[in-house]
Design brief:
Elements (H helix, E strand, L loop, with lengths): L4 H17 L6 E5 L2 E5 L5 H24 L3 H26 L5 H11 L3 E2 L6 E2 L7 H9 L8 H19 L3 H4 L3 E2 L4 E2 L8 H27 L3 H17 L8
Length: 250
């Protein structure tokens, strides 16, 4: 049985997400490869934040489903994607909040809005993306004001966590061996419900939900909605308290 507060958190995040969705121009129907599709014509930074938050909340729901059925390897893979989105939303939101955009923000947005295929030739061809290195995004997030005396510690922690999830994404042997066990020992490809692995990942996913609440609160500030941000921060304290944790300001 997974933490019952996850469902409450998702409900609150969905409510706020709808508010942010309504604060940006809606997608427009266009033709892509001769078929109708939806795209954001304006391609604003706020629209980019919203789309990434949509993917973030969807990712949390996928994480919860995988956890409930004990598919912890796949859960780790999705969590890596969710973590990258978290970094991107923070990166974009801080540039608005602090009014400190950089060339890397422009690069990230250009890459984000770029279509996957070039259809101008006789057949569609994949278009390379000018991706901003994770190291650049993490460096900005750790010290956006340039006043953090020790940004390297924050960067190292984030990089370490990301490396852990990379083992799930790339199928590292040590991670795969977590699927081996039992009496007699065998590989379990039908999930690990009721095992210590499920418990460990349940604990880890709690942190992802908590950070997601704070991430959404930060995005609200970028959207200049302090009231909505305050509501989420209060909920973050309640979410932590329900699990016996106290992260409220001293």
């Amino acid at each position: 049985m997974t933490n019952p507060t996850y469902g409450i958190a998702l409900s609150n995040l969905e409510v706020v997400l709808k508010e942010l969705i309504n604060a940006v121009p809606p997608p427009q129907e266009v033709l892509r490869h001769g078929h109708p599709a939806y795209r954001c014509a304006e391609q604003t930074i706020e629209q980019a934040i919203v789309l990434k938050l949509v993917r973030y909340v969807s990712g949390l729901r996928a994480c919860l489903l995988l956890l409930e059925h004990g598919f912890v390897q796949e859960l780790g893979t999705v969590q890596r994607a969710v973590q990258d989105i978290e970094e991107d939303v923070t990166f974009l939101s801080l540039s608005i909040i602090l009014n400190k955009p950089t060339d890397n923000h422009t690069r990230l947005l250009d890459s984000f809005w770029q279509e996957e295929f070039d259809t101008s030739g006789p057949r569609p061809t994949s278009v390379p993306r000018d991706m901003v290195p994770r190291s650049k995004i993490r460096a900005y997030n750790a010290n956006p004001n340039g006043i953090n005396p020790d940004p390297s510690t924050t960067i190292d922690v984030v990089r370490t966590v990301s490396s852990l999830y990379s083992g799930f994404v790339h199928g590292a042997a040590g991670h795969i061996m977590d699927l081996y066990g039992g009496n007699p020992p065998s590989f379990h490809t039908d999930g690990l419900p009721g095992t210590i692995r499920q418990e460990e990942h349940d604990e880890d996913l709690w942190n992802q939900f908590y950070r997601g609440i704070l991430l959404m609160a930060e995005a609200c500030i970028a959207f200049r909605d302090q009231e909505l941000s305050n509501r989420l921060r209060i909920f973050a304290e309640q979410f932590a308290a329900a699990d016996g944790r106290d992260y409220s300001p001293a």
